[in-house]
Amino acid sequence: TVVVLDFGAQYSQLIARRVRELHVYSQIVPYTISAEELKQMQPKGIIFSGGPASVSAEGSPRPDAAIYDLGIPILGICYGLQVLSVQNGGSVQRPEKREYGFADLQLLGKDSVLLRGISENSRVWMSHGDSVMSIPAGFETTGSTFNCPYTVIENAGKQFYGVQFHPEVVHSAQGKQILSNFVLTVCKAATDWDMGSFVNTAIEDIRSKVGDKQVLCGLSGGVDSAVAAVLIHRAIGDQLVCVFVNNGLLRKGEAEMVQKVFRDNYNIRLQYADAEQAFLSALHGVSEPEAKRKIIGKLFVDTFYNEARNAGEISFLAQGTLYPDVIESKSPSGGPSATIKSHHNVGGLPEDLKWELLEPLRELFKDEVRQLGRELGLPEEMVTRHPFPGPGLGVRCVGEITKERLDTLRDVDAIFIDEIRKAGLYDDIWQALACLLPVKSVGVQGDERTYEEVCSLRAVTSEDAMTADWFRFPPEVLQRASSRICNEVSGVNRVLYDITSKPPGTIEWE
Ligand code: XMP
């Protein structure tokens, strides 16, 4: 194990993830952990994360100083480097110029295990206000940058290392090498961690947390809740009850797929709520996007909790919350990082339901969850699925929502996705979708005049859905999708391709 001591960094989990990429088990703990507790974890190494505080500020986070006597190698990153310096007798100051962004790392010609294989002027990514002004006795400087004389410091005898930059972010060109030098060469950590071992640890955690109580999990058809459910089911079997609400706004075949996978393949207790009629009636005559969203959101919550009340005595609500969902709300280990955005997946729990949250995927990134899904045997189609909004086709059926229009949209969407898959482009696209527009157009089919609906196709690339660019299809793919849609979907005679980026457009139309 390599333990990451969390000082409230946005990047703590990224550090842990980089360690996992080296096949070494990594765990994040709050910086307040005692040296004694740490010792019992028997880590091969300790990484001090960065953090938003200034070491020179009063009351800034400090780890138990007895950690330095455990004889365990330490790597301090950014704030971690500064804490390491100060607690061992160095000093830190806030210089006039803060340093953010790229810098070139100059090696000082010393033989440092940490810097083995690193090139002169390797690009590193800095983000700090304070800087080390003098290093502790017994330490030496092995790397510097133009603005920061003490960029890499070490006490090789004690195996204490510190770097002012962030080796865990991709912007630091050789950051992975530095972490690997620390974890594998300095700490000699065992490389025996993989997704299989994650599953085993997670199962133990779930069992010990849940005991003989019952867990409820809402399935959406998306990858996160699916993986969470299957993992929890492996741990506690029939103590898990899943609820799936068919709101009538799902994609073609989705409700059937969810039932088949969870009921037939995994034998999971699944309560399927067919609420299509209720949603269609509530949405009747409503075209305004925010009004639609509110109706769908409220009815979903009502339906979900009605189902929950029928599920017996429930103690836990399972959610497929991932690390990126948590990263902006608070520091994952309960550490001191600033609240940037509150995030919630299930809006407003009713007061009478006192459930504890069970979130077994909180430490993972999306690609790790996909890998985990494969490990648990989920179908590839489900594991790699594009994101789909909670309000579903409701926000893609622009204008009035009727069963007929939804069915038309489902057919259009299925053909578009099918052509994307056939062209081998599905995984190059963040999200692909079709909208049905509230306009009709004149066309000609055979010798007949037609006057039918218009659909718009959209595919975007994105890192995080905050910004997006439209996907450049080879024209043949659009051509095939267009002619199939007009030929196979009755009621549609015109196909548009949306070339709006985000911003100014959003990914969804409503
Ligand atoms: P926009 O349209 O805001 O979408 O650019 C960004 C991403 O969020 C998805 N989305 C939603 N997801 N509930 C969700 O769970 C929603 O109400 C919702 N609205 C949009 C959208 O599909 C895209 O991935």
Architecture overview:
It is globular and about 90 Å long. It has helices spanning 12-21, 35-41, 79-87, 175-186, 195-210, 223-236, 254-265, 276-283, 289-309, 323-327, 366-375, 380-383, 403-422, 475-488; strands at 2-6, 26-30, 45-48, 74-77, 91-93, 99-107, 122-128, 131-134, 140-145, 148-155, 160-163, 215-219, 240-246, 269-274, 316-318, 356-358, 431-445, 448-461, 469-470, 492-497. Helix 5 packs across helix 11 and helix 8 (276-283) runs antiparallel to helix 9 (289-309). The protein has a 9-stranded mixed sheet with strand order 2-1-3-4-11-10-9-6-7, sandwiched between helices. Strands 14-13-12-15-16 form a 5-stranded parallel sheet, sandwiched between helices. Strands 17, 18, 19 and 20 form a 4-stranded mixed sheet that branches. The chain is of the alpha/beta class. The protein has 14 helices and 20 strands. It has 3 domains: 2-186, 3-Layer(aba) Sandwich (Rossmann fold), CATH 3.40.50; 195-382, HUPs (Rossmann fold); 396-497, GMP Synthetase, Chain A, domain 3. Xanthosine-5'-monophosphate (XMP) binds next to loops.
